[in-house]
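input
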Amino acid sequence: MRTRAIYGCAGLGLGPEERDFFRAVQPWGFIVFARNVADREQLRTLVQSLRETVDDPQAPVLIDQEGGRVARLRPPHWPERPAAARFGVLYDHAPDAAREAVYLNARLIAHDLCEVGINVDCLPLLDVPVDGADAIIGDRAFAHDPAAIIALGRAAIEGLTEGGVLPVMKHIPGHGRATADSHLALPRVATGPEELSATDFVTFRSLNQCPMAMTAHVVYEAIDARRPATTSPKVIRDVIRGQIGFDGLLMSDDVSMNALSGPLSARTRAALFAGCDVVLHCNGKLEEMREVAREAKPLDGAAAKRAAHALSHLTPPDPFDPLAAAARLDELLAAA
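output
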């Protein structure tokens, strides 16, 4: 039986220890980063090798391919894709054109991913940034206006899905107010629950049919002053599953990030106890993955049903002309 974890790997190919580990623990999925990427053929081979360890040709293989500064596939082997904020600028004066541009951009990203066998993209980012917040979100967000984020986020979800790639909305229930980078420290948000619901949470609530979501390592003091969303039963139960109404597969953000504290085994146990369906561990360090694996129990019950339902959204890409799409996207963005 598969287990409730997604793991990275260390390099461009699997070493014997990694291969044996993945075969033994049978993770639900994998994630690749820039350290794992040289060119198309190499990456295609790595993705296939990862899936062979769990004997599943459709096993989820994730990537963070947002465009802008968060992109694991880069020139010269892949085209550079715009940061989300560029579409928000276009939306300000031409909303229909912006929605079309986001859709085409997502289709093009999906085309790039499908070519190498990657079937899940950690996109769209639905965080609502506020002035004075840490720059970790910045131009990764579509806009400051929740209505614009909802419209453009929906277009990104449609583009990825119709391109044969599962979308993951992040960082639920919202990272836009964080005054620290959760890779480095634990952000705390003191905003009241009514304002959070009306601004930060509304983007996720409006797009709650997205098949997958990734948590925020952020403390919302008005809801749970002691635990970040990832490890808070109250935030997951009352906000993510409750107010937001998200019933898809919920994965943690990377449990090795410095926003969380304690041993990796304790972080994993806390995230799963809180209500995450699977935990994400990204850095490819085998000893850390072994620690996560001690607490990443079999994927069963409601978590297994959500995982199966998420994967049921995977379909072959619709017919698509990437050259024509790229030309049209350039034309639309020229007006931004």
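quick obs: The chain has a mean pLDDT of 96.
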